[in-house]
Write a structure and sequence with these properties.
Oligomer: heterodimer
Largest interface: A-B, 23 and 22 residues
CATH superfamily of the largest domain in chain A: Aspartate/ornithine carbamoyltransferase
CATH topology of the largest domain in chain A: Rossmann fold
Distance between the termini of chain B: 24 Å
Structural class of chain A: alpha/beta
Number of strands of chain B: 18
Largest sheet of chain B: 8 strands, mixed
Shape of chain A: globular
Helix content of chain A: 40-55%
CATH class of the largest domain in chain B: Alpha Beta
Structural class of chain B: alpha/beta
CATH architecture of the largest domain in chain B: Alpha-Beta Barrel
Chain lengths: ~400, ~425
């Protein structure tokens, strides 16, 4: 998707002529040339300037029909599935985040006739209820031009005695290219990946992993950092102190975020009551705190997790009131963190249990609505990257 | 009856500590003589044991079959074939069948079913009716009919008062009471050992303390009542310490078993959610495995069992949390143990004692030893023969084993039951 160098060279004949034609500093053009992309606000000027050079450009010129998945360091993304963050290494993650950033810049509805997933079949297989994850995968697939089928298996089919592998066999007959799975049992997507010939994307399995959520959280954070200009170098997620707070024990989002943010080099903290911190978490490359006051000290980012209300029955915490008092994020507790600290939450939120409404709704500090927005873009990037890797593998196998 | 002469073999008898190259003479199903200087009678059938070790036939104290009720898992016949292929000549079958073995007539029925098989079938009867954990079965009558041990299967007796009465009542018959060491409140609905590894995999897990708490309770109750207790299937280092302490102060009535799986595997074998490595108790840390091996070597653990638990693929090929627990083990038991011996982790004599004379004494059987007049139940094995475990080649009706594809050292070559060679491989 690195279209800027070609565009600058072919239309204007190089960086300096382009700078003259657009009346911009050569260093600006130089930076477009290097990053490979051009910010959307300049597109209109470029289209007008290009017309004077006899080139007719459209928005599609800035979003080539089959953008290449970035191949940094001469390494192309070749993973067959997206099951867990640990499937990826740093370069994979950088490539995915870069592609996600591209789709986020371009938050326009794409023509479905021409997307990079045209002719591919995407099946959404959800054994657990979900709103945002399922819909964002559906939308991501459609924007990229795939044929999307959503299957809500729920618990009824399971009661009828159909096993996961029976379902898999049925699906295999439909010959899907990409399968998005959410299942209540840890490891279920891994089992499907072993038995199916398509790319499997884990949309949450038990208490194990939710890699696409972790990636979209990182994308949201990186976009915000780039905007505020504090941390221009994107590796700077690495310089941040990030606290993940609340019910870590039952959270697949927390597990995936710990893995991803560790790879990106953040200084990580887990904060929660001892009953909600997993055994052995001290070996995960994190510092563990049981009170918000000391835990939040110096934190740049605070990720809150949903407290599932049924946890009250299992004597994990005594009451909503006490939980909110010690572990709910309020203005007062936020004051322990670094000034200007950002707040995230994977949703759905329990207002007044783990987070107060005035914190959640403050656009200055809360990234919560941006996370939903980044969800579609990040999932487009993941689907696109897996699909390209699949195409390359098929070409390789054919030759 | 037949006669057999086994020549030039290394005879190992853990009961007496006898270890020498020699010959064994068998007549009418019994060992009539053995040693270095005995002569073969004329025209007798001879088995050459050169390069092999001859030990008493193994006694597996914990075998679950599907007969009656779940014959798709395993029948007594298929279990017997698996047993002799693994050098096992006696097995105790668990009461978890359908119907449960909680009645005199079923004990009798299964003994008759087992009479024609090439292994000795002993009955482990249910402790409570329908394994409900509350109402005592006819322990005395079933013991008289031949039940050698009483167990509540996979579910322990939760109520301490009931357990106390079971131990107290059964003490007058000298019956052996086996109780699984686990605390249901901690272990119910969990599928793994609580550790960093399970937390990463997102599996619901029970702490090793669950096992220790129940073991401590049962030992205290055995001490209180004088009942005979088998702490069944321990798997953690902390329970080993509990048993060691109990034996130091009060040892007579307490015995302890461990499954071969927990001596050979650890939690890492679950790997990428391999449901075939889902066991009860769960596989634990390497630290625990090492402690268990040491405890077998120093005699703290009395008995090694296969914990043979056949499950068809349909019950196993599920997401890890939904798959059923258990593995077949009759054919793996000896080889997996010999592999540990070859690694220097297990002492050969201690390993064989835990499979022969120790269980024989606990159960009151006259097998499990090489002695003049003892039944000629023997196994001849090649201690260093390498082979690769292929689950499809197993004789069990179910093929669920975590050892599939593993390289093993040591294999049963001949199995002799009552003087007849019932298996040669």
């Amino acid at each position: 998707m690195s279209y800027a160098p070609t565009l600058i060279d072919n239309v204007f004949g190089g960086i300096r002529p382009a700078a003259r034609a657009l009346n911009k500093a050569a260093s600006t053009i130089q930076s477009w040339h290097e990053t490979g992309t051009i910010p959307q606000k300049h597109w209109n000027d470029i289209i007008i300037a290009a017309a004077e050079f006899g080139h007719i450009l459209t928005a599609e010129s800035f979003f080539p029909l089959s953008p290449q998945v970035p191949a940094q360091h001469g390494y192309s993304f070749d993973k067959p599935h997206c099951l867990s963050i640990t499937d990826f290494h740093r370069v994979d993650i950088e490539n995915l985040l870069e592609l996600g950033g591209h789709y986020l810049d371009l938050s326009v509805q794409k023509s479905t006739r021409e997307g990079p997933l045209r002719g591919k079949t995407l099946v959404n297989l959800f054994f657990e209820n979900s709103t945002r994850t399922e819909k964002s995968f559906e939308l991501a697939g459609k924007r990229l031009g795939a044929d999307v089928i959503s299957m809500n298996i729920g618990s009824s089919s399971v009661k009828k005695g159909e096993t996961l592998l029976d379902t898999a066999t049925t699906l295999n007959a439909m010959n899907p290219d990409l399968l998005v799975v959410r299942h209540g049992a840890s490891g279920a997507p891994a089992l499907l990946a072993q038995k199916l010939s398509c790319a499997v994307i884990n949309a949450g399995d038990g208490m194990h992993a939710h890699p696409t959520q972790a990636l979209l959280d990182a994308l949201t954070l990186r976009q915000k950092l780039q905007e505020t200009g504090q941390k221009i170098d994107k590796r700077d997620i690495g310089g941040l102190r990030i606290a993940i707070c609340g019910d870590i024990l039952h959270s697949r989002v927390a597990r995936s975020n710990v893995q991803l943010l560790n790879i990106l080099g953040a200084d990580l903290r887990l904060i929660g009551p001892p009953t909600l911190i997993p055994i052995g978490a001290e070996n995960w490359g994190v510092d563990i705190f049981h009170d918000m006051e000391t835990g939040l000290e110096g934190c740049d980012v605070i990720m809150m997790l949903r407290l599932q209300l049924e946890r009250m029955n299992g004597a994990f915490v005594p009451s909503k009131r006490e939980y909110y008092h010690y572990h709910g994020l309020t203005r007062e507790k936020l004051a322990y963190a670094k000034p200007g600290a950002l707040v995230m939450h994977p949703g759905p939120m329990n207002r007044g249990v783990e987070i107060s409404s005035d914190v959640a709704d403050d656009p200055e500090i809360s990234l919560i609505t941006r996370q939903v927005e980044a969800g579609v873009a990040m999932r487009m990037a993941i689907l696109h990257a897996l699909s390209e890797a699949q195409n390359r593998a098929q070409i390789k196998a054919a030759s | 009856m037949s006669a057999l002469f086994i020549k030039n073999t290394r005879i190992l008898d853990p009961d007496s500590g006898y270890d020498a190259i020699g010959h064994i003479l068998i007549q009418d199903g019994r060992i009539t003589d053995f040693g270095e200087n005995i002569k073969a009678p004329k025209s007798i059938k001879t088995l050459d044991g050169t390069g092999l070790i001859c030990a008493p036939g193994l006694i597996d104290m914990r075998v679950t079959t599907g007969e009656p009720g779940r014959e798709n898992r395993e029948t007594l016949e298929t279990a017997a074939q698996a047993a002799i292929a693994g050098g096992v000549t006696s097995m105790v079958i668990m009461p978890e069948t359908n119907p449960v073995i909680d009645d005199l007539s079923l004990v009798d029925f299964l003994q008759r079913r087992g009479a024609d098989l090439p292994v000795n079938i002993h009955i482990g009867a249910a402790l409570t009716k329908g394994l409900d954990g509350r109402s005592m079965t006819e322990i005395g009558l079933m013991a008289d009919a031949g039940a050698v041990l009483f167990s509540n299967g996979q579910t322990p007796i939760t109520d301490a008062q009931i357990m106390r009465r079971l131990l107290s009542y059964s003490a007058s018959f000298g019956a052996l009471i086996a109780n699984r060491a686990l605390t249901p409140a901690l272990s119910d609905n969990t599928v793994a050992h609580e550790s960093d590894f399970a937390a990463r995999l997102g599996l619901s897990a029970a702490p090793a303390a669950s096992e220790r708490i129940m073991a401590e309770r049962d030992i205290a109750l055995a001490e209180l009542t004088g009942g005979r207790l088998l702490v069944d299937l321990i798997s953690s280092a902390q329970t080993v310490d509990v048993i060691r302490r109990a034996k130091a102060t009060f040892h007579k009535n307490i015995a302890c078993s461990v499954s071969i799986n927990h001596l050979a595997l650890n939690e890492i074998d679950i790997g990428d959610y391999r449901s075939f490595a889902k066991l009860a108790p769960p596989l634990r840390e390497e630290y625990d495995r090492q402690a268990l091996l040491r405890a077998v070597n120093d005699g703290t653990l009395d008995v090694i069992v296969s914990d043979h638990n056949p499950r068809p693929a349909g019950e196993k090929r599920l997401p890890y949390a939904e798959a059923s627990s258990g593995a077949v083990g009759l054919e793996i038991l000896l080889a997996a143990g010999l592999s540990q011996v070859a690694d220097g982790a297990l002492d050969l004599m201690a390993f064989l004692a835990a499979l022969t004379c120790n269980p024989a004494k606990l159960l009151g059987l006259n097998t499990g030893r090489i002695a003049t007049g003892a039944p000629a139940d023997l196994v001849l094995f090649a201690p260093n023969r390498p082979w690769v475990c292929d689950s499809e080649q197993l004789k069990s009706r179910s093929k669920n084993t975590p050892f599939d594809g593993r390289r093993m050292t040591g294999k049963a070559v001949h199995t002799v039951k009552d003087g007849d060679v019932v298996y040669s491989g």
